[in-house]
Amino acid sequence: MNSFAVSTIRIATSLVGGCILLNTIAPSAHAFNLVPQEEGEINTGVGSSLDVDGYLNFSGFSVESLDFEVSRGGQTFQTKSRLFVDQAGTANTYGGGVSFKSRDIGTSEENQAFWLRPVAMIWEKNQLLEQGQLEAGLFRFTFDSPLASLDLDFFDVESKGTSILKVNGQDYNEAIAVGGNSNISTYSLLNVSSIELMLGNANTSGVNANDRRWSTGDGVLARGTGEVATASVPEPTAMAGLFLAGAGMGLIRRKRQSV
Prior knowledge:
By secondary structure, this protein is mainly beta. The chain is about 10% helix and about 45% strand. A hairpin with a 2-residue loop joins strand 12 and strand 13. The longest helix is centred in the C-terminal third of the chain and has 23 residues. It is globular and about 55 Å long. The termini are far apart.
C-alpha cells in the first residue's frame, strides 16, 4: 500500500540581547470527522438539493462530484452522483426518486452509524437505478486544513472498482480489497490535503468492469476519521528557560573575550 508521510519540524528564531533563541514548535492535532453526524444531502455541485431542508451545513472540508464512465445496455456514457449522509436503520425519502429504506435492498450496516452514501444518477425505464439505492460515485474531497492522519472505512466492497484514486492531487490508485458480505476495509493515510475516491461500482467499463453476477452494480458506503495538524506555541515557562540559557551563553562568551 502506498503511504503519504512527511515529518516536519518547524523552528522559530528570535534575537534577544544579541543571542539567537531556537524554539521548537511541536505539532498538535484535533479530531476530524469526514461524516457530518446528521442525515441529509451534501452539496457536491450537482444542482439544487433533493432535500426539502436544503443541503447540510458543516465545516472542515468540501466535496465535488466528478464525472465517471458507465457502460450499460451496450452504451457508454458519463454521469455524476449525489452524496448523502445516511444513518443505518432509518428510512428517508428525498426528491427526484431517491428513497432509502430502513434496510437497504443490498446489504445494510447494522450499527446505527452515520455513513457517506453516494447515489448514482443513472436512469433506466424512467426511474433511478435501484430507486436511488445504487451507492456508487466519484468524489474529490478537499480539506480546509491538512490532515495529519485520515482513516477511511469502506463498507461492503464486494466487486472491484472502489479505489483511492488520488491523494493531494497525485495518482495513488489503491484498489480497495474485495471481501464478503458486510465487510469493512480500513485504509490509513498521513498528511492529506485532498483525496479522490471511487465508491462502489456502477457496472463501469474498462479495467473496472463489474462482475457478471451484479446486474446493476456494487454499492459501497464510506466514512472517515482523523486529525487536523496544527502548530502549538511553546509555553511561557519554556520560552523563559530558553531566554536564560541564551543570555548565559552570551555572558560566558563576553567574559572569555575580556580575558
